Please model this.
Amino acid sequence: MKNVRILVADDDKEIRDLVKIYLEREWYQVDTAVNGEEAIAYFERSRYDLVILDLMMPRVDGIEVCRVIRNRSNVPVLMLTAKDHEADKIVGLNIGADDYMTKPFSIHEVIARVKALMRRFLVLGSSSELDSVHRAEPNIVKFKGLIMDLQNYTVTRDGDEIPLTGKELQLLKFLVSHPGQVFTKTQLFRNVWDSDYLEDDNTVMVHIRKLRKKVERDPSNPQWIQTVWGIGYKFVGEKDEA
Model:
């Protein structure tokens, strides 16, 4: 992980320094920003593999910083918030954050979340989970109208590229990897978020809703990502044999 670069943006110096110290112990390269304006400046001039954002920062808050990042990159974003309110968590997820943590938090859990995000983002498409799915080319999965390039982290629908966040890519990849199989919200959270603890259903529901809005031709009548009422979700798609 020596070549992995992480940006940490938090106006609390103690938190900023603590996270930096522990990340560097894991051999990550870390830059720190004291406010949202500085975080944007860092992001515009450097390449990062993951960003840790405090929700409430001076000058420019974490919400706006995340919007800027999402307009340019699908890099994983871990949002930190001091407010233990459901609305703040949903806002963070809706603007493109891949995961969130509420302060105060365990620094060891932060590191575990970072590792999980990096592991799933950096190796996306390199596992053997898709062996049972038709591949037209190496690292490319094709269904009628939907193509996933797992090496370049791109998804196209009817020839148009669809910008997805890292977590959305992971969620779509997992569903595509098991066509027709039904998963509960807890199972999706365990496999995509790499955690056994599902704090509330909104985490999965929000990401499913966002993914449908981007991927489906008609999100209100999804073709691929379907709800199995009372159970969870499944991916249904006709393989492109061309």
User: Anything to note?
Assistant: The first strand starts at residue 5 and ends at 9. Confidence is low (pLDDT under 50) at residues 125-138.
